[in-house]
Amino acid sequence: MLELRHISQNYGDRALLQDINLSVAAGEIVALLGPSGSGKSTLLAIVAGLQSPLGGSVWFNGQDITRLPPEQRRFALMFQDFALFPHLSVLDNVAFGLIEQRLDKSKARAKALAMLALFGLADHARYKVWHLSGGEQQRVALARALITQPRALLLDEPFSALDADLRTSLRDEFKARIQAAGVPTLLVTHDEQEARAMATRAVRLSHGRLAALW
Amino acid sequence: MEDRGRPWKTEICPTKLRVNTNFEVPQLMSFVRACGQSQSSLWLALLPFAALLLLLIAPLARLALSGFTGEASWLGAASSSWSLWTPWQDDYLRWRVLWSLAQAGITCVLVFVLGLPLAWVLARFEFAGRALVLRLLMLPFVVPTLVAALGVLALWGPRGLLSGWLGVNLQDTPWLLLYGNLFFNLCLVVRAGVDALGQINARQVAAARSLGATPWRTFWRIEWPAIAPWLMSSLCLVFLYCFAGFGLALVLGGQRFATVEVEIYTLVAHELQLGQASVLALWMLGLTGGVALLYALLEKRLAAPSRVQPLARRPPQGLAQWLALLGALLVLFAICALPILAIVWRALAAGWSTWVTLLDFEVAAALWNTLRFSSIALLLATLLGVLHALAAQRSVLWRAAAFLPFVVSPVTVAFGLLLLYPDWTASLPLLLAAYAVLAYPFVAKSMAAGLDSLPPHVLNAARTLGASPQRTFWRVTLPLLRPALRRGMAFAAATALGEFAVTLFLSRPEWATLTTLIYRRLGHPGAASLDQAFVLASLLMLLALLAFLLIEWPVVEREVPGWPVAGNVPMGELRHA
User: What angle do CA B492, B495, B496 make, to 5 degrees?
Assistant: First the structure.
């Protein structure tokens, strides 16, 4: 269970987040909706440990992890621009997290190759990431996120860089894979249709406050 | 799009976080973290700051003091009653200052008139070998000043390729110096122009055309306002480089058309008139400082390059466009390539007996000195540059400080060092430190640009995948910055190899480098000495090219399509003064 308790954050003089409370259960996908600039990505960064909140705390399975650095949280964060490492091959991108977990390089690569095969990308393993299409890059990003068996999945507008057709086809695939992983998932999006297609629950962030949608 | 970028930057720049007085634990953490990051920046900046302070700022301050007081008696040198206004009251010195200003101004006009059409042709036309031409435009940036001066002499000097063929004698005319200035600076303006024209949004041009503007009106109303600040900023640098130039003016200016920098050198090295030299140096400092300030203001106005849809290049159509392309390539060849080819030609024509002199002990010693001084300077410059760039991530002022060694002339720096540390003037550490300070901004600027182009999400992705900050640096940041580092090092190496002014001031005879040896050969009478100078210049040019290719070439191979080119040194920041 991932919990946010009384989270607040400022941007300059503006109160970006005010007293945010949210919990996401294992296997649940919660969509976080809101207009541009409402602080959705900031909230995700706080959960990931990339930003410290001004006030409040982040809890996971009853443990306060607010002070825990991002690399020790084991939360996988997917970015809207995929954030793949351009100097590494597709295989090494996917194996990156496993190597950070001190797994032997050859074993990490073997596991990464198996994961890529699961995503239908085994043929592309040796390519650099820029050779891939947008959809393929997105799959690599998800494979990279899931291979480390994260304790929670944080998706920051994962489909916003893709065209409409690809977006629709990837939604179902991603939903199935995330549900199979069975981890609490927070999906940031500004597309309500996308939220309805993927999420089990949705909340809206507006003027720094959170409100339940469904 | 979501609030992409902004809130994440709060993490990168934690000082933006508002800290209330009623701390809660996380607030305190943010504050402590911000302080920690500021402190780490401070530690990183310590070494480059010390280098800048001791080797640039303090010598300049000493020079200014000496200029204002008009004396240099602490050196035991001859001093006379010189005032701050003497350079404007004395006819000879007034001519020197005015000519220095005039040759820089004329060069600016010439490079603008030639450079803008050349840049337009290269930016808008697609033709076979275009990429190669753009890459070759980098060549003058790595050619040492003295080699360029010899290139001009090989073309237009005694027994020159063109002067002999056309039967003209340009000795003791201003044309030699102006041609040398063009060789270095035309490429700078053309590269700046091509880059600026590449930033023009095709959609804006299409909108203007659809609203009834002719191609010429579109250029005038849409393209020109967009590129003008870029061109003006590069012209400021051209002015600075020409005004504060030393090597070219020393070799090509002759008695009549030498510049203030040469005059300062003559007063210090030959006439021991340190008081007079410091007054002149102070004026130089003031005038270059004024232009540098103008440049800084222009740069501030220039928006950071955004991702735009550039105008598509098309092959030339019709005779006029082909003639324009051919003409542009010919002008570039004549000004930027011919002097280099002329040196090779003169060296080859010098004959076997001249090439044998390369085996002399004196040449071998100079070659050894050049290589070891440059290598040590490169290592020092890399260390200083990397530290400066990392520290400058959070300080605009500190970032601007890396520009200091670019705008201060090496002669002024060397003279300042001579005044400030009279007991260490013939000390090797001081010479090498001066080399490093003049070369390190290339590394600092290139690394800073590389760090800027790193998308924060990539580093954040590494952190969320389990990499600690140190591991993220080694596994992601450093590999991505390697091209920027190599590029900066390539320019720093070329600068160190061709260093001339500081060596001339601070070196001992036994520390002669290839540049000082070439200068000595030029000072000897006779055709044989001149031929030897050409052979040595070929050797130096080869070394500079090799260093550049060794460090720079793999970068070209490894550039990632569609990825921001990490660490492109802005063309305007390449120094050849």
Answer: 85
